[in-house]
């Protein structure tokens, strides 16, 4: 059985490589993260074991054709031969109808690659989803991925952390969230208003737009398709600024429907320190907190006090 190897300065052997990764990432992933990754790895190994068993069976079957077909195996285990179908030409028997294992072998190689790719991308997607970071998917080189290979999840955790510049997931998630919030609430060059702290409320002007067609012909406020992302970002920011959590989204607005938004009532929030939100036809959004202290804390935590109007 093969396992993933690491290249670390002064520690070229497998065991030292694994230990160095674990120590380096000890304070960067949680026990829940480890349990998820280990569970994914266990399920992957079960699937790869099944693929390997079938591959061994069909490979043994293929060997009886080696002299006749003059085939070879590529590094990834696929069968390579020239003029695959020409061997049946000119034969007057029925051997061309016989089962041949070559296509099955190559299909199993593809399944081996797909399983490895699924594993890598599930690990990365988990951290992207859990911590709201944006790490790209890992590509698997199908030409060099050998049958029998067994990846370890630490490889991809290490790749993610390296992509994040060595910072913890939470540190990076907070930085990315603050950047997204800043972009969503930053006033346009012609705007004369900016986010404002008013006692126990924060006023966010010009955050969203409602669809003109639905307002005119259906008399209801539906969030314009292009502005749904701004609302999601704002909710994530409020959840972090108010309650120090990184899982905020529009689902924290109780009874909220983006296709039919009330502009007359306050919506309750599931967050603790931010209690209610209200929408206005002009795109303004007000967020009410449990008190002025909580509002001010969120305002500063999201660095809204650093936003300035652009001079025309």
Protein topology:
Elements: E1 2-3, H1 14-25, H2 31-62, H3 66-69, E2 72-73, E3 79-80, H4 102-131, E4 149-150, H5 153-163, H6 169-185, E5 196-198, E6 201-204, H7 212-217, H8 228-243, E7 266-268, E8 274-279, E9 285-289, H9 292-301
Parallel strand pairs: 1-4
Antiparallel strand pairs: 2-3, 5-6, 6-9, 7-8, 8-9
Helix pairs in contact: 1-5, 2-4, 4-5, 6-8, 8-9
What can you tell me about this protein's structure?
With 312 residues, this protein is α+β, with helices and mostly antiparallel strands. It folds into 2 domains: 2-167; 189-306, no CATH class. Helices cover 44% and strands 9% of the residues. It contains 9 helices and 9 strands. The protein has helices at 14-25, 31-62, 66-69, 102-131, 153-163, 169-185, 212-217, 228-243, 292-301; strands at 2-3, 72-73, 79-80, 149-150, 196-198, 201-204, 266-268, 274-279, 285-289. The strands form 3 sheets. It has a 5-stranded antiparallel beta sheet with strand order 5-6-9-8-7. Strands 1-4 form a two-stranded parallel ribbon. Strand 5 and strand 6 (201-204) form a beta hairpin. Helix 4 (102-131) crosses helix 5.
């Amino acid at each position: 059985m093969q396992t993933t190897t690491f290249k670390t300065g002064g520690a070229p052997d497998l065991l030292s490589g694994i230990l160095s990764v674990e120590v380096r990432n000890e304070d960067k992933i949680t026990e829940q993260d480890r349990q998820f990754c280990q569970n994914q790895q266990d399920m992957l190994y079960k699937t790869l074991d099944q693929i390997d068993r079938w591959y061994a069976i069909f490979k043994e079957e293929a060997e009886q054709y080696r002299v006749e077909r003059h085939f070879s195996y590529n590094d990834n285990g696929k069968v390579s031969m020239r003029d695959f179908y020409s061997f049946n030409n000119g034969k007057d028997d029925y051997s061309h109808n016989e089962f041949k294992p070559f296509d099955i072998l190559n299909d199993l190689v593809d399944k081996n690659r797909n399983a490895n790719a699924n594993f890598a991308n599930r690990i990365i997607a988990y951290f992207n989803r859990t911590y709201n970071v944006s790490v790209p998917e890992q590509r698997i080189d199908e030409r060099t991925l050998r049958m029998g290979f067994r990846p370890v999840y630490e490889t991809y955790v290490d790749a993610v952390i390296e992509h994040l510049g060595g910072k913890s997931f939470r540190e990076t998630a907070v930085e990315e969230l603050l950047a997204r919030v800043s972009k969503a609430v930053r006033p346009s060059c012609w705007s004369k208003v900016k986010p404002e702290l008013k006692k126990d409320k924060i006023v966010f002007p010009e955050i969203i737009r409602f669809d003109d067609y639905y307002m005119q012909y259906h008399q209801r406020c539906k969030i314009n398709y292009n502005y749904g992302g701004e609302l999601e970002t704002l909710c994530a920011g409020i959840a972090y600024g108010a309650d120090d959590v990184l899982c905020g989204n529009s689902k924290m607005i109780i009874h909220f429907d983006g296709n039919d938004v009330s502009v007359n009532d306050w919506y309750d929030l599931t967050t603790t320190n931010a209690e209610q939100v209200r929408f206005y036809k002009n795109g303004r959004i007000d967020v009410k907190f449990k008190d002025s202290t909580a509002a001010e804390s969120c305002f500063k935590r999201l660095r809204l006090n650093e936003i300035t109007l652009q001079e025309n």
